[in-house]
## 1
Amino acid sequence: MSKLNCWEVKKCGREPGGEKSHDLGVCPASTDQTCNGLNEGNNAGRICWAIAGTFCGGKVQGDFAQKSVSCMSCEFFKQVKGEEPSDSFTLLKPGQAYQAAAK
């Protein structure tokens, strides 16, 4: 079974060559090569919640601290977490640390 990336599940069309990429731009999760292979995804396709500037919900999202609550309630996040063994699930990208968002 091949594990799907966020753009394949969400069908947003914002991956390179996607149907909406020309008009709306390419989502950074689909091009962030520093995360390639994490949670068995292509680029950041299975760790999109850790990528600043993703385009979920029709608008540009902030960094992980700003969007963590909405991302952790996302069905795709739950899917990835359920598909990965608990000892190999990756929450943050390499070198990234969790800091609570400023109020």
Note: The helical segments are 6-10, 21-24, 64-72, 75-83.
## 2
Amino acid sequence: MICVGLPNTPAQVPAANLIFHGRSLAGSLIGGIAETQEMLDYCAEKNITADVELIDIKDVNKAFERMEKSDVKYRFVIDLATLK
């Protein structure tokens, strides 16, 4: 696990999970290009994808209002084809 940025609360990691399963923990204030590429390669290899809600550019204000109301389950992604 790589923690990018600071979490709101301290992380509690059972040492046995690290030791007996050969796992590791790292941290960085920012994710550099090499780290980002490594993460993308890993996700592609393991077929890990993100759940997103695709929205039209005309709906960006509605999406912002929903975000303020905590009515968001997935990350909003603007469909660039709607920018015309």
Note: The helical segments are 15-21, 33-46, 60-68.
